[in-house]
Amino acid sequence: MRISHKRNIQRKLHKQKPLLTHTTSAVNDTLNIETVIEKVEAAVTIQPVVASKPVVTLTPKQQQVLDIIVKNIDGLNPKGIGLQAGQEDAKAASWATGALKKLTEEGLVERIQLAGNKVLYKAL
Fold first, then answer.
1. What pLDDT digit, counting tens, does each position of 16-30 carry?
2. How far is 77 from 73, CA to CA, in rounded Å?
3. Would you say the C-alpha torsion 93, 96, 102, 103 has a positive or negative sign?
4. What is the dihedral angle through the alpha carbons of 49, 51, 57, 58, rounded to the nearest 10 degrees?
5. For the whole prediction, is pTM greater than 0.85?
6. Number of H helices, E strands in the chain
7. For 3-42, b where at least 16 C-beta lie within 10 A, e where not — what string?
8. Nearest 5°: CA angle at 37, between 31 and 42?
9. Are 66 and 58 in contact (CB under 8 A)?
10. CA-CA distance, 101 to 96, in Å (whole number)?
11. Domain ranges within the chain, ordered by starting residue
């Protein structure tokens, strides 16, 4: 090892502060914090929380996809949803999949896996 490297290591080790240098100020700070916490706890009133079902906010695209699925009771594949929304044949399925993923996560639409890679989506 080079001597300069050893010297740098030793300097870093000596820079460490002892653990008990500020113990009295730390104790005083904790006492002040505890009194402040007690004052705040006395001032806070607790109100009961009513559990309600969160309202799901949907984008216009997601709402459009949901409306198309609700109209078709038998279920529809992503390409059919995209075609009914007025998309081109080549990009119809990819247009609908983003909205369908969000709708399935929210529990508004059910994903049914058919044979192979065929999928249908039904409204719940």
1. 665 555 555 565 666
2. 12
3. negative
4. 160
5. no
6. 5, 2
7. eeeeeeeeeeeeeeeeeeeeeeeeeeeeeeeeeeeeeeee
8. 130
9. yes
10. 9
11. 74-123
